[in-house]
Amino acid sequence: MSYFVDKKVLLTGASAGIGAAAARLLAQRGAELYLTARRLDRLEAVGAECVGLGSPLVKVAAHDLSVEGQGKIIVRECLALLGGLDILICNAGFGVFGPIEENSPDIMRRLWQVNIQSAYESIFESVQYFQKCRKGHIALTSSVLGKKGMPYASGYCATKFAQVGLGEALWGELSGQGISVTVICPGSTASEFHAVATRSQGTPNPMKARGGQPARLVAKALVRAIENRKREVHLTLGVRLLLVIDRISPTLSNLIMAWIGRSQLGSR
Question: In terms of CB atoms within 10 Å, which of 38, 60, 81, 185 comes out highest?
């Protein structure tokens, strides 16, 4: 029997990319799902797929996590619609790329709200329920840019570093209460992420020049990490190699990331 059978899962950013792929995998494994994202039509399509793949219960609801407080609301809705919550997956997020002088504090405020503040709201609301149950699991989709900063992605890196730090701190804080915490740090992923990212004029889309790891591969690693209660997972081989280099020579890894950022995201 699958670990996820009858598990009640709240998944944000579920309308496309890693989120949609994770929803399908969880449905195949028998999880009950509460799926949320901004685009209701896309959500409903993913939800219908999940029912066909074997999920016994699928609920979808459109929410804009750039609005303060929505992170708490989705947890309350999930508890009401599914009758409980076992796994919270904070996967929603978007990117902002370009020189810092062209990305205003207002842009950063929205980026922070979607990528980290809404996740904190959901975690705050769900932890209270998990503590009553003495069990639960929190998962965060971060990035290699939550481990190493890159030029022309400073705001995005800040949110991803925050996710890694939040997950690490919560792991130590909650592990004795039966609550697991997982952070997954993928590299570049072939999804809509770069197509819908906010970028300054002249900042290129790196995915036009090269591919990325399939979203399904990242989702599979996420699902497996939750099942095995892994604290932190790094994808891919290139990411793992970069982090090994960083332990040996931080200066060298900084130079590598500076070169990658300037060559892929620098204005042209």
Answer: 185
Annotation marks residue 156 as catalytic: yes
Of 34, 129, 152, 156, the active-site residue reads 156
Q: 190 lies in which domain range?
A: 8-265
Place of tokens 């939040």: 166
pTM score of the predicted model: 0.90
Number of domain units in the chain: 1
- Whole-number Å distance between alpha carbons of 161 and 233: 14
Residues 177-194: tens digit of each pLDDT: 999 999 999 988 775 554
Measured distance CA(121)–CA(130) in Å, rounded? 14
Residue 260: closest CA among 161, 144, 158, 165: 144
User: What strand order describes the sheet that includes 58-62?
Assistant: 58-62, 32-37, 8-12, 87-90, 136-141, 179-185, 232-234
Residue 81 sits in a domain whose CATH number is 3.40.50.720
pLDDT category of residue 264 using cuts at 50, 70 and 90: confident
SS3 content of the chain, % helix, strand, coil (to 5): 55, 15, 30
